[in-house]
Amino acid sequence: MQKIACIFSFKESSWVSCQKIVFNLHAAYGSLENTEILNFNYGPQNERGENRALAQEIYDAEPDIISIIDHKPHPIFIINAITALYTQDKRPLPKFVFHVFGDFTLYYPLWDNLQKVLKGAQVQFIVASPRQKILLDRMLSGAESLVCPFPVNSEEFFHAPKLRQACRSAWGIEDKDFAFVFTGRLSRQKRIKTLITTFNLAFEKNPNAHLFVYGHSDNLGDPFMAKHDVEGEYFRSFFKTYRSLAPEVQNRIHFMGQVPNKELLPVYQGADAFINLSVHNDEDYGMSVAEAECSGLPCIMTDWGGLAAFAHSELPAATCYIPVAIGKRSKIVRKEEVVKAMNHAITKFKQVDRSELSRLAQEKFGVEAAHSILEDSLKKPFPIFTNFSELFSRASNANLNAMYRQPYRTRNNYINKLYREIYSAYVRPN
Amino acid sequence: MLDLIKAQYNSGRAMTQGFNWGIMQRGQPHNLLSDLYPWGIDYYHELNPYFMINIPRIELYNIAKIITVRDGILPFAASMVKNFAKLQNLETGFIINPELAPYLPPVFNDRSHTWRISQKKKLKLADAPNVLITGVMSDSVDLKVVKEKLQFLRQVRKDAKIELYLPIRKHPLISGWRETYVGYETLNLIKDTLPGRTLNFLTSTELLERTSFKDTYHYDLIDDNELFADKGLWHFIANRGGTVHGFEDAPAPNSVFDLELGFTHTLHVCPLPEVPNRFGELVFHFKLNPSTEPVYDSSFISLIRKK
């Protein structure tokens, strides 16, 4: 019987997608064969003394594998405390698993400090998508990461056509209407302003097209692109655009606020297309896309980061991708391409077999799928960690000096070579 | 004046914008903002909301055509009085909280308005599944006033989840730190008002990392306009779906210009009320008792508080 210590915060993350990810990942671990799962609370408020006590608890439990399944707080504090105990007693270290979230690139200095204690240990980095694997493997020296998509709970998101009519009635639209839906943060990097503008370009004269936008605005800005927003700044930016549209178009764009998870299933049944124009630096995956597809909803997405993982060769008609390029000053999503994708959706998406899409998505992104990957990979030897790569060191140094100089901009405010070396992993190669 | 507002709205130029960081010396905020963090957090709209007390030089008032004044009575009056000799040269218009009208220098009357903020679709307290009580605990707090304010919360439903954000801070108008029982006494008052409830405490980080305040009724124990009239924390909560008790329930009937600040809350620009003006009285006092920082001058404070 192998023992796995699952380390996560018992308190929910403020990042909604991460709340679900941790819960579902834990469920995937829970069903592993011949495995005892031990749960340890590593929370954001843990002080040093608490981390030492927690490390002792973990050490005393003698796990074979220590798995970090949460994104916050950074694991450096607990891993340092744990490895100190093993070193002190000259016991061999257990294996380590790090489920890497999109915010990996926000914490280079902390990962940098971690490499000293991990040197020589068996470490498996697990990422959520193939493009995140490309990015992370550039940061690892010699070793490779493993792809295990963040799982979706198929009991929460599944194809339920019976819910469609009630949702559309609540929305006040008819069967002949076409409903696009976005769910997530109304964030600069999610290109909400572009979404509104292109919807208008595509459907100004089409009274049957509707856009339902679920979520609250935020002030995350786009710090890597040197765009820092204060509270309300991005809201005013996209809302001013919205208010500049003809009233008839404004009436077909509906801001629905944020709804609890359980209310999203009917939303995905009522909609005809999910749309996501994200070029977020942290877009390692796309939990909302995974949930939409598991609910059988065809998707329009930018071809960026983890979103690329949601195409199905078995059902290519279910997805439509919008090209992304890293331009001189920002990531480029051409409005013409978005309009083209929207028009494609309105003519083709209603013919997609949603039940089949749901089945395919659940097969790839459900808890069972994650369980199979973990079952298989955790039995095998892990790569021996030596250090992070030279690219990682440069990125870490650039971010350490971020107070004085933008890490990813040149003096002329262009995107620099370092950013391209890292984030070219997130765009389709030419 | 409406032309000035529209010109400002179209320019969108605001002191909180990133490119004004250096010129506004944003790295050195006024102590009042630090002492009352996060009530004074920045936010943006086209009519340039800013704290007068945080503007390092009067010449910077002209960065934008309009300033929507976030200060309360005391720092606003202090800022104006301190610069009284230079006000004639300014071209700026002001949008102020109505309670600040008696302290507005008359030279600005023809280019100033008042603001009010309303919120639609407000949850009723008695229906709210979540209640968030906020307030700064410092020596400046009058516990009698707190006790009165808490009476409103008696209608909280029995199964509501109650969260408290009550950071303990120094008195914002006094330089030194003194130990105070105010925080503990306030908790006792809350327990008396809402007996038998589990109270959940939040740190600043936990509050400001929250991405949703849906189904949450926010009640602020600091709802007067003495120090801050426009609280950034309220905007933060409203933008994330919360109902803010402090925002008005209905739009202002005499609004000349409306600006949506979020999906549910709106700024209304209204005419200046006709009230007796006290600016001359303050200037007279200031000339007799010049002070580099009138906001910390106890005689100035007493004069303001004298009705």
Notes on the structure:
The complex is a heterodimer of chains A (430) and B (307). Chain A is an alpha/beta fold. Chain A has 16 helices and 14 strands. Chain A has helices spanning 16-30, 48-61, 76-88, 108-118, 130-139, 164-171, 192-203, 233-243, 247-250, 264-270, 287-294, 335-348, 354-365, 367-377, 390-400, 417-423, and strands at 2-8, 35-41, 65-68, 95-99, 123-127, 146-147, 178-183, 209-214, 253-257, 273-276, 299-302, 319-322, 325-326, 331-332. In chain A, helix 2 crosses helix 3 and helix 3 packs parallel to helix 4 (108-118). The longest helix of chain A is centred in the first third of the chain and has 15 residues, at 16-30. In chain B, 25% of the residues lie in helices and 16% in strands. Chain B has 9 helices and 11 strands. The mean pLDDT of chain B is 93. A 6-stranded mixed sheet of chain B has the order 1-2-3-4-11-10. Chain B has a 5-stranded parallel sheet with strand order 7-6-5-8-9, covered by helices on one side. With 307 residues, chain B is α/β, with parallel strands linked by helices. The A-B interface holds A 14-16, 44-45, 185, 216-218, 227-233, 235-236, 239-240, 243, 255, 257-260 and B 12, 16-18, 41-46, 203, 205-206, 209-212, 214, 232, 235-236, 239-241, 260-263.
